[in-house]
Amino acid sequence: MATASVGLSMAIISLSKLLLLLCGLAILVFAQRDPTAGKSLNQAYTPVAVLFTLLAFSASLFWTVAPLADALGSVAKYGKLLAIVLMMALIRDRREAMYALGTFVAAQLFLVASSWMLFAHLPVPWATSNMALTEYAVFSSYLDQGIISSVFAAICWHFRSLAPGRFGQHLAIFLAFTSLGNVFFVLSGRSGHIVAIALLSIAIMWELPKRYRSAVILLPFLLVLILFFSSPKIRERLTQVRTEVQSYSTQVQPTTSSGIRLGLWRRSIQSIAQHPFTGSGVGSWSSEYNRLQRENNPAHKDIDGNWNPHQEYLLWGVQLGIPGILILCSLMLAVLHDTLRMEKPYARAAQSALLALAIACLFNSSIYDALIGDFFCVLIGLLLALGLHKNARPTIATPQQECPT
Question: Most buried in the list 52, 120, 304, 355, measured by CB within 10 Å?
Answer without folding.
Answer: 355
